[in-house]
Design goal:
There is one protein chain. It contains eight helices and 20 strands. By secondary structure, the protein is an alpha+beta fold. Helix 1 packs across helix 2 and helix 6 runs parallel beside helix 7.
Length: 346
Amino acid sequence: MKGRVVVLDQWKGRDAAALVVDGRLEDLWIDPPGDDGLQPGAILRGVVDRPVKGQGGVFVKLPGGMGFLRQVSGLAPGQRVIVQVTGAAEDGKAVPVSLRVLFKSQLAIVTPGAPGLNVSRRIKDEDTRAALQALAAEAMQGAAADHGLILRSACEGASDAEIGDDIAAMRDLAAAVMADLSGGPELLVEAPGAHDLAWRDWSDPAPDAVEQGRGVFDAMEVPAMIDALRRPEVELPGGGGMVIEPTRALVAVDVNTGADGSPAAGLKANIAAARDLPRQLRLRGLGGQVTVDFAPMPKKDRGTLEQVLRAAFKGEGAETTLAGWTPLGCFELQRKRDRLPLEALL
């Protein structure tokens, strides 16, 4: 099926959602097995434990585990804090959490500790922006002084009533949760499930179709697309390929030209790999340090390849830092672990 299609189904008894664009899988959410409440997006009350020497942070006691907070200023052992899980925990390590808590809906984001009323920059029409600013100011009356608001780009196609109701729900939830500092470690707001994330994050641009129900994954050939992600080999346009292999220390990516032996084969394969790399890392749930061994090419072409990489990662939701070339000719980048690895989900 052509166009942008959101597919809502189940995977082995768990809710799952796939975003398919022109027949290609672009994003995937699957509810984790045996959810312990410490999934990305969950909001919890924790108790500050002890500082971690040399790492500039503290451990935080959470329900069912420990969190790691990269902040020590103003915190004391035994202090209760409201935190949000910001990523997937590595094996044997504490769950990453942050004091910067975000209350997200499809249309609005309430930001405790970051005051101000903001409208998504993707909304360009000045009259629309002014109307949304006025609506936001009215809907946030009575909110805590340090609670801010961001109106998402999906507001452009929503009614005033829908936007107002969405803001009010997030405003009231934020007020209740941020004031709930009595007691021990507790889960206050569950992480959004796969279907919730699909409605929340894939609504802009609006999908051309939403397929929902049992069997729609099979009808859209989603299982075959998932199976392809479980293989390290990735075929690239033009005959080249890359191999993506996660290790305990990093994600290794090797790019090759295939059967093409022309002088331009290296740059062509590398550009194709750079364009597809963000999608592959996102779908496979891979993050941390990523080291790419690109196919051989003249050094003069590195600038061109870096421009392609920057453009490819520009729209990614997960924070990514392009570190650059190593002395041995590999390219390194750092991608935030914003979700569980696909293999852990499957």
